[in-house]
Design a protein that fits this description.
The chain is of the alpha+beta class. It has two helices and five strands. Strands 4-3-2-1-5 form a five-stranded antiparallel sheet, with helices on one face. It is elongated and about 75 Å long. 10% of the residues are buried. InterPro entries: YolD.
């Protein structure tokens, strides 16, 4: 009977325990972690002015945010601003409402 080779499978690492998989996944996330850029009050004021401008004329905005060590981009129209809780409600192209806190925002581009 011929010998059946496992191919490349024999060279893959063996993960025996779920704790080991979780540790490796956590390590990979930590290696890709990025620091939040520092934004002074003048830059924050400029970002807020862009958001107000886009909301007034119903332009699309591209908002770049920083959450838990990673950057995310959202594109849509500003549905409403909540000054009390300092949140932006952004309506995306697919009709979903995305809540964004002012402190998470690191960049805003208005697409006229």
């Amino acid at each position: 009977m011929p010998h059946k080779d496992r191919g490349l499978l024999k060279w893959l690492p063996a993960h025996f325990m779920p704790e080991q998989r979780a540790m490796l996944k956590k390590l990979e996330i930590e290696q890709n972690y990025q620091n939040k850029p520092l934004i002074d009050e003048y830059e924050m004021l400029e970002l807020e002015n862009r958001i107000h401008y886009a909301m007034e004329f119903a332009y699309f905005v591209k908002v770049k945010i920083w959450r838990e060590g990673f950057f995310h981009d959202f594109k849509g129209r500003v549905n409403r601003l909540d000054g009390f809780s300092k949140k932006i409600y952004l309506e995306t192209d697919h009709g979903y409402i995305q809540k964004i806190v002012f402190d998470e925002i690191v960049g805003v581009e208005v697409e006229a």
